[in-house]
Amino acid sequence: MSPRPGIDRHQLLQAAAELADQGGFHSVTLAALAGRLGVRSPSLYNHVDGLPGLHAALTQYGLQILHERLLKAVAGRSGEEALRHVCIAYVEFARTHPGLYEAALQPIQPDHADTKQIGDDIVGLLLQVLAHYGLEEAEALHSVRTLRSLCHGFSSLERGGQFAMDLSLDESLAYMIQIFIQGLNAQRRD
Amino acid sequence: MSPRPGIDRHQLLQAAAELADQGGFHSVTLAALAGRLGVRSPSLYNHVDGLPGLHAALTQYGLQILHERLLKAVAGRSGEEALRHVCIAYVEFARTHPGLYEAALQPIQPDHADTKQIGDDIVGLLLQVLAHYGLEEAEALHSVRTLRSLCHGFSSLERGGQFAMDLSLDESLAYMIQIFIQGLNAQRRD
DNA sequence: TTGCTAAAACTAATGATATTAGTTAATATG
DNA sequence: CATATTAACTAATATCATTAGTTTTAGCAA
């Protein structure tokens, strides 16, 4: 134990995530976080390495939770059902935690191996989901990039209010997944 | 004419775009822009409505140029060829002007009707490209959302260094477009 | 219990930024 | 050539991140 307990790290990350979800990733400032934790800004330097360190920590935290959600979505499922559910879980996470999701997709610093690892775990999970389609290695990797582009693009555009038209977003999502699945099936046949 | 010429608006936007391409959208500050233009920051308030106004202006400028590039890409082309070229032009724009692209996809303020219009023009252009597939209205709109998700997701992840694996990005892009086209064709047959 | 130590909080100070108010300078037009 | 308009400027304020140095607190050992 420390000579003095101070701020709990999970409580810090949770508070930062709430700030992000309320005002976007850029609104996660040391001043705002300190205010929410009832502490002066310089005190936070005992817990994170300045603002960049806070941002990096939130990125890792976001990736962890995203990974958990995706794991839950594919648990006990396989094939097309697993694929549909993983896409929906991805978008749902971005919807319910927009700021934390935004944090999760910030560029990862080259020296943060543990954060990188979580990203790789997510890629591995998606590879496993796509294994059902029996693609060759390179094709499987291209497919994962396509899937990530779809899910991230949809989430990002939705959050940014870029889908302004009066048309169901959930129907668009279902349509998008369908297009991807049919494209994959066609690819498999070639 | 003005009693005093001052800074040319196009020159201002060009300088802001260069700042964005060099250091990202967030590095477009009044101080940095003023420095580049050889002027003090408060002088910029004669040309843009503070930092939010500068950002909004850069968003509109980015959308304009993106629209131009997409128009050029589809000029004299049709069907699958137009679709492939519009995707490639989209991603190429994001690659060569990462910061301006980032600006173009910032959320649009509800009161900026002219900026919104350019976004609608881009959607209209994509609808025209997809007309070749003879989809029903709702399906066509879902397809445009899918296409935008793909292109934006790919561009955004690529720029963020999220495609870390040692695997050709251009092959991934071509694969992605192929999946989309095959998905569309399957959709059309149903 | 009491004193020591380690860690976390604090205050004070600095530098960068956006922004506003008020002033000066330059130029197109009569 | 005088004027009005507009764009530039300086000065000042508030917010933020950051660093340095100090104080406080809580676990632990004597």
Automatic annotation (TrEMBL), chains A, B:
Return the Gene3D superfamilies for the record.
Answer: Homeodomain-like (1.10.10.60), Tetracycline Repressor, domain 2 (1.10.357.10)
Q: Which residues bind DNA?
A: 29-48
- One Pfam match, given by its short name, reads TetR_C_33
HTH tetR-type domain sequence ranges: 6-66
Q: Is Nucleus set as a keyword in this record? A: no
Q: For this UniProt record, give its keywords in alphabetical order, as a comma-separated list.
A: DNA-binding, Transcription, Transcription regulation
- The name this protein carries in UniProt is AcrR family transcriptional regulator
What are the leading ranks of the lineage? Bacteria, Bacillati, Bacillota, Bacilli, Bacillales
